[in-house]
Amino acid sequence: MSGVEVRSVKFSYGKEIVLENVTFEVNEGEILTILGPNGSGKTTLLKCLNRLLNPEGSVLIDSFDISKLSERDLAKLVGYVPQIHLPAFPYRVVDVVVSGRTPHLGLSMPTKKDYELAYNVLGKLSLSYLADRPYTQLSGGELRLILIARALIQQPKVLLLDEPTSHLDLKNRVFVLKILKEVAKEGIAIIMSEHDPNLASLFSDKVLLMYKGRIVSYGRVQDVLNRENIVKVYGVDVEIFENNGKRYIFPTIS
Ligand code: ADP
Prior knowledge:
By secondary structure, this protein is an alpha/beta fold. Helix content is 34%, strand content 28%. It is built from ten helices and twelve strands. A six-stranded mixed beta sheet has the order 6-7-8-3-9-10, with helices on both faces. The radius of gyration is 18 Å and the shape is globular. The termini are far apart. Bound molecules: adenosine-5'-diphosphate.
């Protein structure tokens, strides 16, 4: 299959089991959003999908078992945008983006073509104006977008993003998610974690709702994001509205 297949994944940091019986799949062109309260295992799961952590069970990408791939082959298949990335050196933004080509370059230096790709990706994300700026002088939102550009230039089959909208204002949240929708259309499978069920509802093809390391519900937005599941997982009562086939979720305040 083209995309990601996760089968019976189990992981513990020590004695405590943090993920158990996690099974799902994401086809190329689809966005799957992982929702769940803090500590439910979202970041751990994303790290199991790019081998930062090695779980029990299996993770297949385009039918390749990732536990059997070389570092370089894995990096060609999977792009990862972490939640926190503190820039250490004032590299130019375009050089940071070009560094995403590393899995394709081996020991060679980036060529003019790699820089062309970097400028193209920056253009596509409306970020060309940042190309020559030092990476250390970006706002939180700009930094997030540059990390997405760096992952895209890697030309992965799967893009993993840990809370790509955190610390962004509403406009930038929607901008990032619209960009990810475009990226998915190019045939990439996207798996991201998110805190806002409304954004998940508006932008996802599938949702994986987690609680304490287990899947509570998985499937289409309409089937997963219902009142019963949300009360069960978040302990907050909500009212749900439908408009134009989209679902809107509001906490009720008594
Ligand atoms: P989420 O991303 O949903 O907030 P995490 O995957 O970060 O959840 O955490 C899941 C559980 O694993 C939590 O109980 C957390 O305390 C624990 N955990 C996360 N990272 C580590 C670690 N490096 N060592 C030990 N426990 C960890």
